[in-house]
Amino acid sequence: MRCLVFLAAVAIAAPAQTVVEHAVIGAAGAKAAAAAAGVGKAAGSILEGVRRQLQSAAKPGAQVAVPAGMAAEPAPKPAPAIEYADPAGITVGLERAELLRKFGEPSMKTAASDGAETWFYTPPNRDGIVATLCDGKVTAVSPAPKPKQETAAVVILQ
Predict the structure, then answer these.
(1) Is residue 97 pLDDT above 90, yes or no?
(2) Using CA atoms, how far apart are residues 150 and 147, in angstroms rounded to an integer?
(3) Residues near 112 by Cβ (< 8 Å), separated by ≥ 6?
């Protein structure tokens, strides 16, 4: 008999538990849906404002409102490219300052412990020029050495 009463009590309580859980889950879902609706309305109003701005900007001569702190500034004009003389014109006795003014910075520089410097100029579509400087003056000018080509060996195995 006790067993029968216990089973009857469980049979009545189980659906009640299900109803309570369903109500709690339903309430949480309703709150989430209400919050999502608020977010959706806010996003919709933002997008509507963007749409109006784009439509007004599409009209010729239209002024577009720019939010504070986002003022557009014109891009600075690039500096004109400096064109230097052909490095083939480097001559012995040329001062360092004149060398830089006429021919620009070399593509590479090396310095020796005795103070001598070697400046390498590589103009486009031309052979390179090597200028040696001592005490601030060009003491030697020569064509840049050509890179050595690697030799390849072919081995045939039979």
Answers:
(1) yes
(2) 9
(3) 118
